[in-house]
Amino acid sequence: MNTCSWAPRAGMAILLIAVSGQFRSSMAWAQQTLGPCTVLPANNIWNTPVDTLPVLANSTTMVTTIGANTGFHADFGSGTWDGGPIGIPFVTVTGAQAKYPATFLYNDESDPGPYAVPLNAPIEGGSGSDGDRHAIAVDTTNCILYELYRAFPGSSN
Fold first, then answer.
1. 15 CB burial (10 A radius; 0-12, 13-18, 19+)
2. Domain membership of residue 100 as a residue range
3. CB-count burial class (<10 Å; 0-12, 13-18, 19+) for 21
4. How many domains would you assign to the chain?
5. pTM above 0.85, yes or no
6. Which end of the chain, C or N, has fewer beta carbons within 10 A?
7. What 3-state class would DSSP assign to 6?
8. Which pLDDT tens digit goes with each residue over 62-110?
């Protein structure tokens, strides 16, 4: 297995939560992978099993503050809400994926590209969304995550 980690790029958020079933792992706390790529470096705090750690002294206070009967709202992208799809979808691509230029409202806060995001990549909220409209592609050959915010597909020109 390839042990590379994401190659983060300036101005891009690394998506750490994903649709269940997209990652491979023999145990829930083991190093997660997407294709041959590790999601986080092995020494990242998110790869630390916590089930055997001692309970913090203020644990009861934290649970009470949150609410002992409050449910966990995880928006992992399964299903619909208010008539539209929820979560942030992503696609996996190979290193052979065509790369396209992108234009940005804040060019100085974004990598210049080009981006290996297919023109038909799924968009957060659907193609008619007026929300954040993230489009994410993971190049599993080079272990690079490409993320676009307010993505509106153009053409290959």
1. middle
2. 1-157
3. exposed
4. 1
5. no
6. C
7. coil
8. 999 989 888 776 666 667 777 777 778 899 999 999 999 988 888 888 8
